[in-house]
User: What shape does this take?
Amino acid sequence: NAAVSYDVGFYRVRVVAASGESSDFFGQFHIVVRKINGCWKIVQDWDAATLSGRPITAEDFSRKAPVQFLSEPAALATSESEALSTGGCHPARRC
Assistant: This one.
């Protein structure tokens, strides 16, 4: 709605050893954001390693292609760094 939103998806963490051998670990993220004083704030964020009681696998992860939100990576880096440096608010807002 206009004040609360959430997202759920899968993620992969790849660990590469000094030998070059890699291992993948999979999980599911859940995030809830709420608009507070005109700024979106994360109010809940958690991960899970299982899905219906079974470990999350590469098959679960590959069910959908990743979503690309911005075509310009530089725009993402700028907005991300602005959000981090301002505690999640646009620099023009006071939250």
Observations:
- Helices lie at 58-61, 73-85.
- Residues 71 and 77 are 12 Å apart (CA to CA).
- The beta strands are 4-16, 22-36, 39-48, 50-51, 54-55.
- The first helix runs from residue 58 to 61.
